[in-house]
Amino acid sequence: MIDLHCHILPALDDGALDLADSVAMAREAERDGIAVVCATPHIRYDHDVRIEELPERVGALQGELDRRGVGVRIAQGGELAQSAADSLSAAHLHAVSLDGGGWILLEPAPGPLADELPALVERLRARGARTILAHPERHAGAASSSERDLRKRLRALIARGCLIQWTAEFIATSGLHDPDAFVLRLARDGLVHLLASDAHSSHGGRPVVLSAAVERLRGTCSPEQVAWIAERAPAAILAGEEVLPPW
Ligand SMILES: [Fe+2]
After folding, report:
1. From the CA of 227, how far away is ligand 1's center (Å)?
2. What is the CATH number of the domain that holds 224?
3. N or C: which end of the chain has fewer CB within 10 A?
């Protein structure tokens, strides 16, 4: 499997505290059957992440994993904040795309998904970048009207070629024991395209684990849809291919 969203680079943003923490996160990924972890530090005004340093930082972590025999590849990327997306140069936009394939992991501004997001997706596409929307569950309210509103906003983004990445832990645990849980309804309706850990540390918070979410989806989606979400779509993203959800 491929983890498309992980704050695994050490001592950089609000992710891994140090190199030992990064190595522990990579071991956690390996135990879960994750072969590639995208390093996606925050590209946002309140984090001092210098994009030109990313190749060296990714290379240093990869070297440490190779020395310790951890069988995980670290791919370069970033989690680009909505507020920072328009101001990035073409070179920086390419450098934070996932494994250099041109797909951008976009972090929405706090609160409900903004009206201007579809236009931003279109502007990024005009610049040669494709968009993955990160963690929509954080941008959905609790009222039933919020689910309708979220569905409408996600469909507007999907219509513009955007893929929707949900946090694996949320998929695995939200509305547990409810076969009609919110996130399962959305998955059945084709609004779940990708899973990612969005892990920040081995010391606490979300783990670098995707398998539990995949297992939960198996109970609600067809085997073909689960295989597409878990394997085919993320591989195509790293390869820089066009990805059209069949659902
Ligand atoms: Fe993140």
Report:
1. 24
2. 3.20.20.140
3. C
**Domain assignment of residue 175, yes or no:** yes
The mean pLDDT value for 26-35 works out to 98
Domain extent, residue 12, equals 2-238
| Residue position matching structure tokens 């591989």 | 235
pLDDT band at 201 (very low <50, low <70, confident <90, very high): very high
- Between the CA of 132 and the centroid of ligand 1 the distance, in Å, is 12
Cα gap 118→106, rounded to integer Å: 12
C-alpha to C-alpha distances, 213 to 138, 141, 192, 227, nearest whole angstrom: 17, 22, 11, 12
Is 244 inside any structural domain?
Answer: no
User: How many domains does the chain contain in total?
Assistant: 1
Reduced to 3 states (helix: H, G, I; strand: E, B; else coil), residue 241 is coil
Q: Please check whether residue 229 lies inside any domain of the structure.
A: yes
Banded pLDDT at 246 (limits 50, 70, 90): confident
CA of 40 to the centre of ligand 1 (A): 7
If DSSP states are collapsed to H, E and C, what string results for 189-219? CCCCCEEECCECCCCCCCCCCCHHHHHHHHC
Q: Is 225 part of a structural domain of the chain?
A: yes
Expressed in angstroms and rounded, the spacing between residue 128 Cα and the centre of ligand 1 is 23
Strand partners, 42: 79
pLDDT category, 122, cuts 50, 70, 90?
Answer: very high
Share of the chain above pLDDT 90, in %: 91
